[in-house]
Amino acid sequence: MQVAELAGADVRFLLAARRALGLPIPAPDERAYAKADIEALRIATLARDAGVADEEMLELMRTLGRGLARSAQAMRALALQLAIEPAISEHELAKRYARVASDLGPLANPLVANLLAVYLRHVADSEAITSEDRATGQLPGSREVTVCFADLVGFTRLGERFSPHELSRLARRLERLVSELCVAPVTLVKTIGDAAMLTCPEASPLVDVALELLDVVEDAESSLPQLHLGAASGPALSRAGDWFGAPVNVASRITQTANPGTILVESKVRRELPDGYQCSYIGRRRLRGLSEPLRLYRVRRDPSAHGQNA
Question: What is the C-alpha radius of gyration for the chain, rounded to an integer number of angstroms?
Fold first, then answer.
């Protein structure tokens, strides 16, 4: 294939890279590639030549593809929002969109490159390499973390009353709200439709954010549906911006059990919390997918604690 030859890559890797990025495979006689395709494949090939294994390179491309696909959609929506107006003709919209894209296009590459540099620096500062990691020559393994899910109540039923646009607006509002409340060491890992996933090396800061989130949503001026939240602690593995391990699964199951307007935690999270919280035991619950029932506690702020509000 001509594209592979121009990039100095083999066709097999080209096709694997397209699949990893989530892009369609053009027909053999289809002219579907641009200069950017060739340059991206050339850079990936240079990384392979430098010793990066194919699977590692493809995993990186899968991760980049997921993030950049969302970014491209957001950038396109921004350009369209600037170009569109009521009763505009298709021809005029195309002209205005092209003009806006031409103005914003040159900003995209430096914006993405600089933001990537910012995140690389943040990851380097926040994820330490231990002596054990250096001794084994392996990437950092699992570590203790507290995981929390915040889920909008009745989101599926809302789909019967609201348009997809309105549902999207609610989900984006939740993401913005959680982003604003998360302060290091609490991290917003991702949003999944009507739910947000947060992590923290310690339980207390994460529970504080969860309680503050409940307060904001319960405020009379908030138009968001109620939330229910669940948290669990334990060893988990961080890879490609996501987390894997028992506390992720347990926190998700606990969230499904929590009543609207509450946060439930399992025993390990409760033990890690200092004074200043009220932890009410609600009993043992057998949760789907877990072999043993869990002791669950509802967490509130302790109004009698110094510096705490009721």
Answer: 24
Give the angle subtended at the CA of 45 by the CAs of 134 and 114, to the nearest 5°: 70
CA distance 142 to 244: 9
Is residue 63 within 8 A of residue 18, CB to CB? The reply is no
Q: Which amino acid is at 16?
A: A
Give Cα 172 distance to the centre of its chain: 12
d(CA 130, CA 38): 39
Separation of alpha carbons 226 and 40, rounded Å: 44
CA distances to 28, 34, 52 from 6, in Å: 16, 12, 21
Asked if the model's pLDDT at residue 221 lies above 70, the reply is: no
Q: Which numeric CATH code is attached to 143-301?
A: 3.30.70.1230
How many alpha carbons lie under 13 Å from residue 266 in its C-beta half-sphere?
26
244 - beta bridge partners? 237
Domain ranges for the chain: 2-126, 143-301
The per-residue pLDDT for range 26-43, each reduced to its tens digit, is: 777 777 778 888 888 888
Nearest to 258 by CA among 230, 297, 231: 230
Task: Kindly give the pairing relationship between strand 195-200 and strand 242-244.
Answer: unpaired
> Burial level of 44, CB count in 10 A (0-12/13-18/19+)?
buried
How far is Cα of residue 126 from the mean position of the Cα atoms in its chain?
17
Looking at per-residue pLDDT, the higher value among 207 and 14 belongs to 207
Angle at alpha carbon of residue 212, lines to 116 and 150, rounded to 5°? 65
DSSP state of 309: -
| CA neighbor of 254 nearest in space, from 151, 145, 144 | 151
Phi-psi region of 240 (alpha: psi -120 to 50; beta: other; left: phi over 0): left
Type of residue at 295: R
